[in-house]
Design goal:
Helix content is 46%, strand content 16%. By secondary structure, the protein is an alpha/beta fold. Helix 2 links the parallel strand 3 (47-52) and strand 4 (92-96). The model has no long low-confidence stretch (mean pLDDT 96).
Length: 251
């Protein structure tokens, strides 16, 4: 298995366990969706903590699974995974150490609260490969100012945990070795409350936010129908896999 799942005292835990960088393969995401489905049925579950094994939360998706024709299966599955995290009935706390990049960053954008280590970095490097991050295009400007979201997506440059907490993306920053401890402490503070009240309150918060599902649908269609029809998207992905500089045709 590429994930670990546990439940104790009303707190569920899902740990991405695909070291060293917890790359988000289709297999891992299938396991993650299965775990989310099982945990949704835990009536006494009050909080879910999502973290990564080792020094890094996740360096993102498997680039090899993005190239044609594999993206036709990957992108819908990835969007479904993110939607399941966003729609999870109990509050979700993301616990982030080290690199939180690409698809890894997009996963935690669907969480309700984020605890980060001092050495954590958050970024969407997809533009460097000639593609874009569909989830970040749909969700990131709802968590940050439009300008900062645009800077992250359009430059491909990562931000550190201090800038992330100042921007409101992250709620708490602690030493790297204390990330999971702090995330569990936050989860315990939430788990004092009624599971029913927490779930209904989360529904109210999400209902009053922009429609994430509709935004993800638009971003996914643009990725599938327009982006992957360009020469540069395929060139950028292949250049990454071949460890060379892309030769852009601007088409």
């Amino acid at each position: 298995m590429t994930i670990r799942v546990a439940v104790s005292d009303g707190i569920g835990r899902i740990v991405l366990d695909h070291p060293p960088l917890n790359i988000l393969t289709r297999d891992l995401m299938t396991n993650l969706r299965d775990a989310l489905t099982r945990l949704e049925r835990e009536r006494g579950l009050r909080v879910l903590v999502l973290s990564g094994e080792g020094k890094h939360f996740s360096a993102g998706a498997d680039v090899g699974e993005h190239v044609p024709p594999h993206y036709k299966g990957l992108i819908p599955e990835f969007l479904e995974t993110v939607e399941m995290i966003a729609a999870f009935p109990a509050p979700v706390v993301g616990a982030v150490r080290g690199r939180c990049l690409g698809g890894g960053f997009e996963l935690v954008q669907a969480a309700d609260l984020i605890v980060a280590g001092q050495g954590a970095t958050f970024g969407q490097p997809e533009i460097l490969l000639g593609v874009f991050p569909p989830v970040a295009c749909a969700l990131l400007s709802h968590r940050l100012s439009y300008g900062l979201a645009a800077e992250i997506v359009l430059t491909g440059d990562a931000i550190d945990s201090q800038r992330a907490v100042q921007a409101g993306l992250v709620q708490r920053v602690v030493p790297d070795e204390k990330v999971e401890e702090e995330a569990l402490e936050l989860a315990r503070s939430l788990s004092r409350h009624s599971a029913a009240s927490l779930r209904i309150t989360k529904r109210a918060l999400r209902a009053c936010a922009p429609d994430a599902s509709a935004a993800l649908d638009v971003a996914g269609r643009l990725y599938m129908e327009e982006l992957m029809a360009t020469e540069d998207a395929v060139e950028g992905l292949n250049a990454f896999l071949e460890k060379r500089k892309p030769a852009w045709s601007h088409r």
